[in-house]
Amino acid sequence: MVKKKTNTEQRIVDAAKEVFILKGHDGARMQEIADTASINKALLHYYFRSKDKLFERVFHEVFSEAFSSIAEVIGRANTIEELIEYFVSYYVAMLKSKPYLPNFILHELNRNPFMVVDLIKDSGMDKSFLIQLLVKESNRKDIRDFNPVHIMVNILSLSIFPFVAAPIIKGFIFDGNKVEFDNFIDERTQHITSFINAAIFKNQS
Amino acid sequence: MVKKKTNTEQRIVDAAKEVFILKGHDGARMQEIADTASINKALLHYYFRSKDKLFERVFHEVFSEAFSSIAEVIGRANTIEELIEYFVSYYVAMLKSKPYLPNFILHELNRNPFMVVDLIKDSGMDKSFLIQLLVKESNRKDIRDFNPVHIMVNILSLSIFPFVAAPIIKGFIFDGNKVEFDNFIDERTQHITSFINAAIFKNQS
DNA sequence: GTCTATAACCGGATAGAC
DNA sequence: GTCTATCCGGTTATAGAC
């Protein structure tokens, strides 16, 4: 049986998550984390030896929040239609509830690319299954001739990028109007799936 | 006539650009910038009063490298086909030569969202022209019924995101093979334009 | 303008009492 | 486990000679 984590330890991790997400690894201050957790700096070092160790813990937790169930979602798909639908609806819904995720991960991707890529490889996401499915489906008569890798990148781009660029879309396109932006996000799953389907299927009017 | 900038000043800005892009605002060190420019720290403060002032100068320069000609490119478009072609080919080519740009700007977008959005507004990019063109074109009989804002965001997403996520695509999809990744980028302009065209135009086989 | 030396400060980490 | 007090290295910024 897993030993129950102390209350303080979780409080620290939660506070660290908040500050690291807001300020990034380099911008975050141990003092601010301590203040947010309502404890003192020394205690941070008692639970986690260093800032880097604390960050590592936070990153792993945040990362698995994002990727723990994606492999299973993909695995259920038998056709490209299902893959698109499952993938997009899962990603957009998940990012709607955790909009900070893409920037947090991309930030670390720049500081430490190999570590992040290794984490993705270990996440259970089955690349060969994905490629196999896409290659098989690309032979269908009703589907246009596209490179499966581009299709995969397109699905990711259309789902994730609006969250990465959210302040620009909100500020520039919607003049800071939060309601209009939220509407836009709510329409997004439906729009992306029909947009991609229109692109890859032949003979639709 | 504009006074010619001293050699040293430009050397500092170039060095700062390099370091800030690589390490980000918070991760960059004035010492490293000085070393890169082959001068000493004191001289940095002689030319620019503080780290923040130097960063501001660098950011403005990098930003205008990215956006100075985009407004003119968009302005030449009369139809949605032209808009897509001009926009995608300009962006992908520009990002191919400056792949660091998206992350640098997105990083600052998190630190300072309003400043970045204000810069975009002042960049001469004519939002109403863009919307007007898209709305007009969306009435065409040969075009599917799509929300113009989503189309605009799609064009941006498909063009920019692969550069943002480059280490993941390179590392995870292409197993670190740089040549395959470069090929992928070279195919990208062509792929995106035909993908978007297939999505928005009716009755294509 | 450019340098060396140093001030002033900040932030991560530790010592040691309770 | 939790606290206060403090250390110590590193970083921005300045003083002052040349």
How would you explain this protein's 3D organization?
Two copies of one chain form a homodimer. Chain A folds into two domains: 7-62, Homeodomain-like (Arc Repressor Mutant, subunit A, Orthogonal Bundle), CATH 1.10.10.60; 68-200, Orthogonal Bundle (Tetracycline Repressor, domain 2). Chain A contains twelve helices and no strands. Chain A has helices at 7-27, 30-36, 41-47, 51-67, 70-75, 80-97, 101-111, 113-122, 127-138, 148-164, 166-173, 178-200. Chain A is an all-alpha fold. Chains A and B meet through helix 1, helix 7, helix 8, helix 10 and helix 11 of A and helix 1, helix 7, helix 8, helix 10 and helix 11 of B. Chain A binds a DNA duplex (18 and 18 nucleotides) through helix 3.
Report the count of strand segments of chain A.
0
> Count the helices of chain A. How many?
12
Query: Can you write the helix and strand succession of chain A as a string?
Result: HHHHHHHHHHHH
Strand content of chain A: under 5%
- Give the radius of gyration of chain A: 20 Å
| CATH topology (fold) name of the largest domain in chain A | Tetracycline Repressor, domain 2
Q: Helical proportion of chain A?
A: over 70%
Helix-and-strand structural type of chain A: mainly alpha
Low-confidence stretches of chain A: none
